[in-house]
Amino acid sequence: MTTPNDPAQVLLFAASRLHRLQIEVLADLKQPLTVRQFRILQRVDEGVSSLSDLSKLAHRSLPTTSESVEGLIRRGLITRTVSETDRRAVVLQVTRAGRRALDDGQAHFDRLAANLLAAVPASDRKAFARFATLVYEYAGREMWGYDT
């Protein structure tokens, strides 16, 4: 397959390839994860502890998010307990095994990012960082109407 000449088309091809690389990196972990599972672990570790909040952040339906969380619970990567302040609410927490999986995935992603940046000449890294930020913010605006 040939790479297109148009820079915008190259960018779309690159984004697809990078996403596929993330999928493969996470699948090869000691505790394999999907991209969605990894993001849920990250968010729960950051303090997001309700299914509805996870669903909103991921821009996914509550049943879709719930299914992913249930899989993580079955694998012992997340626990679900009843809230001490509101017995109708559940609280999600990352387990020790979940922490190891999250740390392993993050370490692999850190190496991947470092290798990607190493491929960019030092003189171009500031411009590369600005461009990457612009692309990230553009995608957020197109999908959800805001940058994050």
Folded structure, characterized:
This protein is mainly α and 148 residues long. The protein has a domain at 7-109: Arc Repressor Mutant, subunit A, CATH 1.10.10. It is 65% helix and 7% strand. The protein is built from 6 helices and 2 strands. Strands 1-2 form a two-stranded antiparallel sheet. It starts with 6 loop residues before the first helix and ends with a helix.
Features:
single chain; 148 residues; mainly alpha; Arc Repressor Mutant, subunit A; two-stranded antiparallel sheet; 6 helices; globular
How would you concisely characterize the structure shown here?
The chain is mainly alpha-helical and 148 residues long. It is built from six helices and two strands.
Layout: helices, strands, pairs:
Elements (H helix, E strand, L loop, with lengths): L6 H21 L7 H11 L5 H8 L3 H13 L3 E5 L7 E5 L1 H23 L6 H20 L4
Helix pairs in contact: 2-5, 3-4
What percent of the residues sit in helical stretches (DSSP H or I)?
55-70%
CATH class of the domain at 7-109: Mainly Alpha
Distance between the termini: 33 Å
Average pLDDT taken over every residue? 92
> What is the succession of H and E elements?
HHHHEEHH
Residue runs with pLDDT of under 50 for 5 or more positions: none
Oligomer: single chain
Put simply, the count of helices is 6
- What is the CATH topology of the domain at 7-109? Arc Repressor Mutant, subunit A
What is the CATH homology-level superfamily of the domain at 7-109?
Winged helix-like DNA-binding domain superfamily/Winged helix DNA-binding domain
Main beta sheet, described?
A: 2 strands, antiparallel
Biggest sheet: strands side by side, in what order?
1-2
Output the structural class: mainly alpha
CA radius of gyration is 18 Å
CATH architecture of the domain at 7-109: Orthogonal Bundle
Number of strand elements: 2
